[in-house]
Sequence to fold (292 residues):
Amino acid sequence: MKKVTKAVIPAAGLGTRVLPATKAQPKEMLVIVDKPSLQYIVEELVASGITDILIVTGRNKDSIEDHFDFSYELEHSLEKAGKFDLLKKVDDISSLANIYYVRQNHPLGLGHAILKAKSFVGEDPFVIALGDDIIYNANKPVAKQLIEVYEKYQTNIVGVQEVAKGDISKYGIVRPTDRYDEKNVKIADFIEKPKIEEAPSNLACLGRYLLTGDIFEYLEQTKPGKGGEIQLTDAILKMIKDDKTTLAYSFEGKRYDIGNKLGLLKANIEFGLRNEETKEGLLKYLKEEIKI
Ligand code: G1P
Fold:
């Protein structure tokens, strides 16, 4: 069995839900406490054993490349000033993984962005981690959980969690069929952002997938779907209909949707309460000022 070492992060979206913050800055670079959100995702992947990451970018996304690159001037001045702790933090970022970039060119949807990864991925199994979904699990990062499911069953996997009824129409929703074990169930149907009354369950795909290279031939045949975009969900469904087993894996972890203002604020507060430097001050502030 081939080891899973590759991942793709689509990061070409315009971030319209958090404008004007994203006018001249990629949404993936918006900060959670002291790191851009994209760094949390790269760190999750690296902690899961991923060594090669392709980031699918678009226009105005140059700061992403700069962030993961060596920064000569900054590192030189931190060294001169004897700020070795900070120097290490900055330097570590540039050696996290082999990071590759490709531009999406045309914003034709998530499926189209993933298709850009075809030559990077080849035939290999690979993880997809969506930039809007930060998932916290201090013990076992969610990508690692998916990789372990792959090692057990060698199928395609979609990471899911139950969502509130009112949120169903924001996500790709699965119809479960045969149960494999407590956390894995075979998918019979997969619908992108259904209306509540048409939803086959409340099990939503929350931004993590582990797929084999087979997905690309299906993406190539996928016509624009919901919202006029080429949907990854539709390509996965075609694969399922072709009898390629795909499991919905109920992952363990707390997920933050940082593609909207409230989700971004919640992530900042909760990660701030986990951060050694900020937790005490933040808790005191919340207790005294907000009187929680
Ligand atoms: C995408 C996918 C959707 C998935 C969601 C998870 O939608 O198309 O199936 O449930 O991410 O965050 P988006 O939020 O990019 O519109």
Observations:
- The longest strand covers residues 184-192.
- The chain has a mean pLDDT of 93.
- Residues 261-274 form the longest helix (14 residues).
